[in-house]
Amino acid sequence: MKEMIKNAAILFAITLVAGCLLGLVNEVTKDPIAEQQLKAKNEACKNVFQDAERFEVISTSPDLAPEALTGMLSEQGYDVSLDEIAAALDGSGTCLGYVVTVTDHEGYGGDIQFSVGVRNEGIVNGISILKISETAGLGMRAETDLKPQFENKPVTTFTYTKTGAASDSEIDAISGATITTNAVINGVNAALTVYENALAGQGGASNE
After folding, report:
1. Among 18, 40, 101, 149, which residue's beta carbon has the most beta carbons within 10 A?
2. Burial classification of residue 135, based on how many CB atoms lie within 10 Å of its CB (0-12 exposed, 13-18 middle, 19 or more buried)
3. CA dihedral in degrees (80, 86, 88, 89; nearest 10)?
């Protein structure tokens, strides 16, 4: 019995020390990780809205809450989560458009998260990929093969083609990576759906 109590005490001590160390590591790394995430998010916003001076996250209206908009997208058949909406503001605080960040859950290798810049005129500035884990040499070519095709397009819905894009709304699919292509396009279309249903016509001065 004494041996059992001794072993239990040792196990408890080891568990306690390990827990304390994990807590310490988490506390030490929490701020640097948060800073890196914020930096990556700001860079993504700047990539899709180069002429904006700053970006202001929109969270005041219940209608613009990520949960509500994710539900709206689900009702329309999108397997996409709305992560965040930020207003792209110029130096005087005038809203130039929005950066809509979404996560599409249909990627071949898992979730694909990216930001979509949409001007008040409905023009897609471009997209910036934040997280992707597709197959090397195939789906991972989304950054080089798909991303440039979305720039400066006055389009409300994109489709993909395997025979060469013939209009602004068509995106050339990555050869051998149709699933990735479809996931990215669906994510962009979801972001545009958010813009059309919740943001169009709201451009103007910041509400600061």
Report:
1. 101
2. middle
3. 170
Give the model confidence (pLDDT) of 104-151 as tens digits.
Answer: 999 999 999 999 999 999 999 999 999 999 999 999 999 999 999 999
Cβ neighbourhood burial of 163 (10 Å; 0-12, 13-18, 19+): exposed
47: its two tokens: 């990539």
Question: Helix 178-194 to helix 66-75 angle, to the nearest 10 degrees?
Answer: 120
What amino acid occupies position 205?
A
Asked if the structure places residue 28 within a domain, the reply is no
Taking each continuous run of H as one helix and of E as one strand, the counts in the chain are 3, 7
Task: Give a yes or no: residue 39 inside a domain.
Answer: no
- Asked if the structure places residue 195 within a domain, the reply is yes
102 token code pair: 């979404």
**pLDDT above 60 for 182:** yes
- The amino acid occupying position 191 is A
Q: Mean pLDDT in the chain?
A: 87
Burial (CB < 10 A; 0-12, 13-18, 19+), residue 87, is buried
33 in Cβ contact with 40 (< 8 Å): no
Number of structural domains (the chain) is 1
Assign 169 to helix, strand or coil: coil
Please state the φ and ψ torsions of residue 139, each to the nearest 5 degrees: -60, -30
List, for residues 13-48, the tens digit of each pLDDT value: 788 777 677 767 666 665 665 566 566 667 788 889
Identify the domain containing residue 127 by its residue range. 54-199
